[in-house]
Write a structure and sequence with these properties.
Shape of chain A: elongated
Mean pLDDT of chain A: 85
Number of strands of chain A: 0
Number of helices of chain A: 12
Mean pLDDT of chain B: 83
Largest sheet of chain B: none
Shape of chain B: globular
Distance between the termini of chain B: 10 Å
Oligomer: heterodimer
Radius of gyration of chain B: 24 Å
Order of helices and strands of chain B: HHHHHHHHHHHHHH
Chain lengths: 285, 338
């Protein structure tokens, strides 16, 4: 595992992705000091001003203002905080539920495996976008509600993929040896199986973060996201969509922010998959 | 072989029934947990408490949840999905009126995704071992990072706003009539002989269909490429080379045909997701399909309509997956022989 981690940190993909993510995370953590304005401050005398470098731009609003005269740069920076909070907690939550059920199903097999498998089937017959919209109707808007909705929709992604991996790992001799040594089921899972499934888990976690960023943006875009008082990239897009002719920049910037964040998580996931997965790392694909 | 496919499809559809029952029950429960009162919402704001109570009884909201579900299920099986609270129309007919537009969009998008995905996959494979491979690989990952939601906005921005080549609001230009025969606008325009409407509808379909197609092609691309890699390790490729076939003949005649099977399995799952992806694209382009209806219903907490649309999405996705399974048997000789 140590060697695999070292290999991962030498991969240019992983390094590039980490550099991007550190940058975005810095925006999110130091939003208070980095943002030139309060993201909610309205200045109705200068609405839809273009970026500072364009004609009619105002240097105090480096990337211009939106339809309520709020600073676009500040909203982008605070939006990073919203996006990363959702990405982190939603994917961790989905991972915990999915991974626990996957290990139980894959390790014990039998009726419990069947039951969890059918639950996943039913869950997945709901298109994710539709399910998350319906959940948001039930839960109401807000940051924690968005996180909960994503956890409730996406635990199946972890469960399905990990279960297959647990099935393979469980058949290994060293797992049988651990049982023969008198390990309890719980100890066998934690000490012998989880370490073997961790590389896959980390990769899935990274990919899930990318998905969570998109889902948060989508929910905020349709007005069922984190709520109006919390700046979010999806909201900025919805606002800019109405004034796209007056200020195209306002549409382009949050799109770019979402793209860069999602691309960083996907690159990280892809890089980790290539380096952490021993089978893939050996074939060089 | 047709018998085999029919048998498989029938088996899949039978298996779908319990899933649909559970899905509809779940849907029903989640929506009943809402802190909104459908009875009060369906009455004017000046209704008295007694009137609301009477309405609750009439709508069956005072009964236990399980009984309410059975009543709803019984009505739904008879084609009655209840009335939309906000639009005051039959929910089933609202879905029926918007579903064709969504299917039309999804079908165009699937065609585009398949063409771009297969073409791109062959290109990616063709570039293997060349200096361009890492670049193409990176580009395909970056493309994978752009969901339909962002493609919709990017295309709208580039071709609608910046270049102003294509329209991006609605499904025909304002002022043109919308003929109603089958509900599929492209077909209807041709049926009534309005080529101007047909042309306008095509133009309006280009951006949303490409937004969806572009979002779903990279996955198909990458799976085709990796299946081709696997197949080129097989002996029969070497055999074909020894027989003197050109690389092109090997790729198209032998490798591509076999690689298309795993690709199809994945594309089936993808097409199911693509169908629900129409929702966002419809919202972005104000396209009058089921997705826009759903978002409006969700914003108005219009329970009967949300239920009807949610279930329709599930049914269509299940049908798409069944159809792909059937196609898989048609294409895979190994399954046919059994």
């Amino acid at each position: 595992m140590g060697g695999a981690l070292g290999r991962a940190l030498r991969s240019p993909r992983v390094l590039l992705a980490l550099a991007m993510l550190v940058g975005i995370a810095c925006c999110a953590i130091f939003a208070g000091t980095l943002a030139p304005h309060d993201p909610g401050d309205q200045n109705l005398l200068s609405i839809l001003t273009p970026p500072a470098w364009a004609d009619g731009g105002d240097p105090s609003y480096p990337l211009g203002t939106d339809s309520l005269g709020r600073d676009v740069l500040s909203r982008l920076i605070y939006g990073a905080r919203t996006a990363l909070l959702v990405a982190l907690f939603a994917s961790l939550g989905a991972m915990v539920i999915g991974a626990i059920l996957a290990h139980i199903a894959g390790y014990f097999g039998g009726a419990i495996d069947w039951l969890i498998g059918r639950a996943v089937d039913v869950w997945m017959s709901f298109p994710p976008v539709i399910l998350s919209l319906i959940l948001m109707v039930g839960l109401g808007t807000g940051l924690s509600k968005v996180i909960l909705a994503i956890v409730l929709v996406d635990w199946t992604r972890f469960c399905r993929v990990l279960r297959a991996e647990v099935l393979i790992v469980t058949r290994h001799d060293y797992v049988a040896a651990a049982r023969l040594l008198g390990f309890t089921h719980w100890r066998t899972i934690v000490r012998e199986i989880v370490p073997a499934t961790t590389p896959l888990l980390i990769t899935l976690l990274s990919l899930e973060m990318a998905i969570a960023v998109v889902v948060e943006a989508i929910l905020s875009f349709v007005g069922l996201g984190v709520g109006a008082d919390q700046p979010a990239w999806g909201q900025m897009i919805a606002d800019a969509r109405q004034y796209v002719y007056q200020s195209p920049w306002n549409l382009l910037l949050p799109i770019l922010a979402i793209f860069l964040t999602v691309a960083a998580f996907n690159l990280l996931g892809d890089g980790l998959r290539r380096t952490l997965d021993v089978r893939l790392a050996e074939t060089g694909r | 072989m047709i018998l085999l496919v029919l048998e498989l499809v029938a088996r899949r559809l039978l298996a779908a029934i319990p899933i649909l029952l559970i899905v509809s029950a779940l849907l029903f429960c989640v929506l009943r947990l809402l802190p909104v009162d459908p009875a009060a919402m369906s009455l004017p704001p000046n209704a008295t408490i007694e009137e609301v109570e009477a309405q609750r009884r009439e709508m069956g909201l005072d009964k236990p949840l399980a009984q309410q579900y059975l009543i709803w299920l019984n009505a739904a099986l008879h084609g009655d999905f209840g009335r939309s609270i906000a639009l005051r129309r039959d929910a089933g007919s609202l879905v029926a009126a918007t579903l064709p537009a969504t299917i039309q969009l999804a079908a165009c998008a699937m065609t585009i995704a398949a063409i771009l995905g297969l073409g791109g996959g062959l290109l990616l494979f063709h570039l293997r071992g060349t200096a361009l491979e890492p670049v193409a690989d990176l580009v395909s990952i970056l493309l994978l990072s752009i969901p339909e939601f962002l493609w919709g906005l990017i295309l709208l921005f580039a071709f609608g706003v910046l270049l102003q080549w294509l329209p991006f609001i609605g499904q025909v230009s304002p002022g043109l009539p919308v003929p109603h025969v089958t509900g599929f606008l492209l077909l209807d325009a041709l049926l009534v002989g309005r080529f101007d409407v047909f042309l306008s509808a095509c133009q309006h379909l280009i951006l949303p269909a490409f937004a969806l197609g572009l979002a779903f092609s990279p996955t198909i691309m990458r799976v085709l490429r990796s299946s081709l890699f696997d197949i080129y390790l097989e002996d029969y490729i070497q055999q074909a080379r020894l027989r003197g076939l050109s690389e092109r003949q090997i790729l198209i005649g032998h490798a591509f045909r076999n690689a298309s099977l795993p690709t199809l399995t994945l594309a089936g799952v993808q097409f199911g997701i693509l169908f629900s992806g129409t929702l966002l694209v419809e919202v972005i382009y104000s396209y009058p399909g089921m997705g826009n209806l759903m978002v409006d219903a969700v914003r108005n907490a219009d329970l009967p309509l949300i239920q009807a649309i949610g279930l329709t999405y599930c049914i269509v996705v299940l049908l798409i997956n069944t159809a792909v399974d059937g196609l898989y048997v048609v294409l895979n000789p190994k399954l046919r022989a059994r």
